[in-house]
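Case study 2.
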Amino acid sequence: MANFTGEKTAGPNSNSIRGFDVIDTIKTQLESRCPGAVSCADILSAAARDSVVALGGPGWNVQFGRRDSTTASLSTANSNLPAPTSSLSALISSFSNQGFTANEMIALSGAHTIGQARCTTFRTRLYNDNNINASFATSLRPNCPSSGGDNNLSPLDSSATPFDNRYFSDLINQRGLLHSDQELFNGGSADAQVRTYSSSQSTFFRDFASAMVKMSNLSPLTGSSGQVRTNCRRTN
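Prediction:
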């Protein structure tokens, strides 16, 4: 029996990350065709790329051969994953600790061009932040009252389904949903790069793809390290 607690219940992950059933379905089909060959880590890397491509974003070459961890760290997930309340300096530091430049952090933040966020993650911004478009805040408040409705969802950018550069244009118009989003365009060192990505989707796509390749190569387990799980929800 594993003597560790998984990371799904970590603060940044709880009631947030989903789609585990999709990974399970892929894993089941792969195990029936080539048992023990493709790790859950490789499946996640391929699914990340394929989902971006399916929504109109860039593709990149996914390297395979990762193996799955036999442990997890709830405390590391809680301390290392950036919070929606993060300042620009905290975001830069958090990504720098993983070997990413500030520009790579900005590019990866552009993943918020898709998806939604829960009211509890942006309520404080709606009612307390000054660097927010007034009509934007007004439009969101009925769905995210000052109390209650914690799990009500709002899109992370104004074109929530296509993978495009709208996220950066929204930031320039002070329409970032999360406090940490708007920190990327708030009179600081990230402003110029946000403007670049807002004006050139191709530049954003190129930098995003490059940063995703780098992220997928963060200390992978290979060779005889780790294992190829037969069930992605638990170690063998």
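The mean pLDDT is 95.
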